[in-house]
């Protein structure tokens, strides 16, 4: 199943286009994209025999597939070569911070640059499907609704200001957590643990890796977090970024006004954002 936020309404995405879930289900499921997590399993079952009547999808009409997550977890240094380029040791336990929910944005749009040190970080984003507490790693995928693509824009100057650094604030300006274009259920992937992740800036590939290179896999992250907190339906986990970020260049290279950032994840789709100066 592939779902999206089309003009603020929950939509099922099919090869023929989008189906409005609320209308097509005669009100069984709500119109709000967040209502998908009220009963994920029922929605998944319904989607297998959903009626026809799809409409074409204009990417400009798509919003974030999970517009109001209650909790957002983000994982730092979760690829070995990214840790190396950052000059830091590979973590022995997941390094967890957050991106605040006001940073969530859709898959297409503009991002206002607050300064001259904004970096790019492609990330696979996990969406929790049911309340999860103390789950075993072997059962973790069963608690995941699906996967989406994310970009962890980061203001490095603010992120590294002070001691300890301000990770969460530096990654939470408006538009700094775009996700989409769709939420894809786990059963759609031949191997959800091995997906290609790419950042392309002005047609130049800057990051290109696979999620099989994660230090801590999706099941490991879900199990680890659930031992400490209760994961709630619709929660997001930004799983970390591979090597190739601007901070890792010599000298560092950051985003400039007018540049176009494309974020691509195999089997999910792409995001496209144009960098703009502060108005």
UniProtKB/TrEMBL annotation:
GO terms for molecular function: hydrolase activity. Pfam families: FAA_hydrolase (PF01557). The keyword Metal-binding applies. Keywords: Hydrolase, Metal-binding. PANTHER family: FUMARYLACETOACETATE HYDROLASE DOMAIN-CONTAINING PROTEIN 2A, FUMARYLACETOACETATE HYDROLASE DOMAIN-CONTAINING PROTEIN 2A-RELATED. The keyword Metal-binding applies. InterPro entries: FAH (IPR051121), Fumarylacetoacetase-like_C (IPR011234), Fumarylacetoacetase_C_sf (IPR036663). The lineage of its organism: Bacteria, Bacillati, Actinomycetota, Actinomycetes, Micrococcales. Transmembrane segments: none annotated. Residues 72-274 form the Fumarylacetoacetase-like C-terminal domain. This is Fumarylacetoacetate hydrolase family protein.
